[in-house]
Amino acid sequence: MNFRTFRPLALPLAALLWSGMAASAVVNSQASAQALEAMMAAEFAREGGDLTTAALWTLEAASAVPDPVLAARAAESALAAGDALVAAAALARWAVLEPQSTARDRLALRFHVFQGDDDQALAVALRMLARPDGLTDVIQGLEARYPDQGVLARAVLRALRFEPEFPRRVEAWLAMAGLAQRLGDGTLSAQWIDGLIERFPNDPR
Questions:
Q1: CA neighbor of 59 nearest in space, from 86, 95, 81, 99
Q2: Torsion over CA of 55, 58, 64 and 70, rounded to 10 degrees?
Q3: Which long-range contacts (CB under 8 A, 24 or more apart) does 104-111 make?
Q4: What is the DSSP string of 134-192?
Q5: pLDDT in tens, 126-173
Q6: How far apart are CA 54 and CA 145, in angstroms?
Q7: CB within 10 Å: which end of the chain, N or C, has fewer?
Q8: What pLDDT digit, counting tens, does each position of 113-132 carry?
Q9: Residues 78, 172: Cα–Cα separation, whole Å
């Protein structure tokens, strides 16, 4: 699976190392030293063009100290390297450290769509939709370019229509109908419109 459309966070090494040192207040000095060494090794690997090794070292740093910034860096590094296993581990670590992270969910949605895991993608999308700004994030995530030409994104969009947790807001249903149209599925778009009319018969929109 190719994740080359992802790019790691453009954070300088010094900032990341400082983040790891700040976390040392709650972990022992050995773990802090391990994280610092791992981040230095990751940076050297990245400068040498070895993104896979850089992702592995970054994950080791994220595993050593409880810092969500390092976990985020590890996830993005793994996605840039196209390493699904490391990406999954980094996302899991990030979820432990920052379970309500919107940024983490945005990345996780795209990861699961890339992986072809519609169940996990659907679960993340529903979690995002429960937030005030989640609708825009879900649309952007499903509308991104994928190697399967949007097959799984359309599958997630079809599944969302039957979820009782989907927001009961006219604008949400209209947005999904528009998204289905842009994804090239006119039938699905019409189904969203039909559902909208059925649920909001008195709304002038």
A1: 86
A2: -120
A3: 104/72, 104/75, 105/137, 106/137, 106/140, 106/141, 107/72, 107/75, 107/76, 107/79, 109/137, 109/138, 109/141, 109/142, 110/6, 110/141, 110/144, 111/3, 111/75, 111/79, 111/84, 111/87
A4: HHHHHHHHHHS--TTTTHHHHHHHHHHTT-TTS---HHHHHHHHHHHHHTT-HHHHHHH
A5: 999 999 889 999 999 999 989 899 999 999 999 999 999 999 899 999
A6: 25
A7: C
A8: 999 999 999 999 999 999 98
A9: 32
Sole residue written with tokens 């528009």: 178
> Which residues fall within 8 angstroms of residue 34, CB to CB, at 6 or more apart?
60, 61, 64
Residue found under tokens 């999954």: 88
CA–CA dist 97, 91 (Å, integer): 10
Most distant CA pair in the chain, distance: 64
Q: How far is CA 73 from CA 66, 87, 127, 161, 168, in A?
A: 13, 10, 22, 34, 35
AA letter at 18: W
